[in-house]
Amino acid sequence: MSGKKIITVIGATGKQGGAIVQQFLQDTTLTVDWDVRAVTRDIQKESAKKLAAEGAEVVAADLNDKASLIKAFTGSDTVFGVTNYWEKLDMKLEEQQGRNLADAAKETGVKHFIWSSLLDINKLSNGKLARVYHFDSKAHVEEYVRSLGIPATFFLPGFYMSNITGGMLSKRGESWVFSLAVDASSPIPLYDTDDTGKYVKAIVQNKEALLGKRLLGSTEILTAQGVVDAFKKVFPEAGKTASYYQTSKDDFYAFMKGTGMPDFAVDEMYENLLLLQDYGYYGNESLEESLKFVKEPLTTWEEYIRKNPAFASLK
C-alpha cells in the first residue's frame, strides 16, 4: 500500500471518467496524494489495459450489480459516479444504477462521493418540460444521495461541445450552418469533456467548501448565434458565410425520427433544446460561483474548434 488516498472512478474508459483518470495520473499536484482506481465493466479491453499500463489500478464492476460496486469501492476515500442514460434509454434503469452507486458508497464508508448530476427539469419548468428524462433521472439520484446523508458534491456537466461539432454545426453546400430548433439568442453553457478532471480536481481540493453543493461544469455561456460568431472569428475564410438556422419543430422531428430514434427520445431531445431557450440549462444560474474554484485553464469554444480534427483544414 502506498499510503495515498484512493479516488475510484466509474466509467474510467468513458469521456467524463477517462478525463478524471488522466488528470489524477498525470497531474503531479495530485499524484503526490492520490492513487487511481479505474472501474470498468471489461478489464480485458484495450482501453482498460492502457490505463493499467499508465499506473491505474483497474477493477471490474457493473452498475447493475451493487455487490461488485461495494467490492470496487472498498478502501476508497473518494468516488466519482456517473451513469449513461443513452446506452439503454431507460430512466428507471439509470436511477437504479445511481442508487446502487450511492448505496455502495454509503456501505463502504466513502468519505466523498462526487455524483455527475443534472437539474430536475420537470420541477424547474413546473411540469411544462416533463420529458427531459436524462436530466430528471440524475436529479432524482442526487435527491437520493442527499437523503442518505453521505458526504457528497454534485458535478453538473454542461452542453457537450462535441455534440455541436458532431453534426449540429455542419457544412451545407458552400456554407457552414449551426442548426437547432430554438431561437438564436438561446444561451448554451459549453463543456469540453476533456476538462472533467480539472473540475474534479477543484472539487477534491475544495472538499469542505463544496460538500452538499453543486459545481457547474461549463467554461462559458454563449448564445447559439455566439457559437457561430466564434466560428467566424476563428476561421474567417471558411466562416465568411457561416450562419445560425432555427430548424422548425416539424423538420427537427422528421430528421430525428429518420435516424431511427424512438419517438419518446425525440420528444426528449426537443424538450432538452427548449430548456436552453425557455428556462436555461442551469436554470439561468451564473457560472461565476463554480468557476472561482477551478484553477486549471478550461477550454473555450474557440480553443475547442481550433484543435478539433473535423475543422483541421479550415482557415
Itemize the secondary structure elements and their pairings.
Blueprint: E1 5-9, H1 15-26, H2 28-31, E2 34-40, H3 46-53, E3 57-60, H4 66-73, E4 78-81, H5 85-88, H6 91-107, E5 112-116, H7 121-124, H8 133-148, E6 152-157, E7 159-160, H9 161-168, E8 169-172, E9 175-180, E10 187-191, H10 196-205, H11 207-210, E11 214-217, E12 220-223, H12 224-234, E13 243-246, H13 249-258, H14 263-278, H15 288-291, H16 301-307
Parallel strand pairs: 1-2, 1-4, 2-3, 4-5, 5-6, 6-11, 7-10, 9-13
Antiparallel strand pairs: 8-9, 10-12
Q: Short description, anyone?
A:
This protein is an alpha/beta fold.
Description:
The longest helix has 17 residues, at 91-107. The N and C termini lie far apart (52 Å). The strands form 3 sheets. This protein has a 7-stranded parallel beta sheet, with helices on both faces. Strands 7-10-12 form a 3-stranded mixed beta sheet. The chain has helices spanning 15-26, 28-31, 46-53, 66-73, 85-88, 91-107, 121-124, 133-148, 161-168, 196-205, 207-210, 224-234, 249-258, 263-278, 288-291, 301-307; strands at residues 5-9, 34-40, 57-60, 78-81, 112-116, 152-157, 159-160, 169-172, 175-180, 187-191, 214-217, 220-223, 243-246. It is an alpha/beta fold.
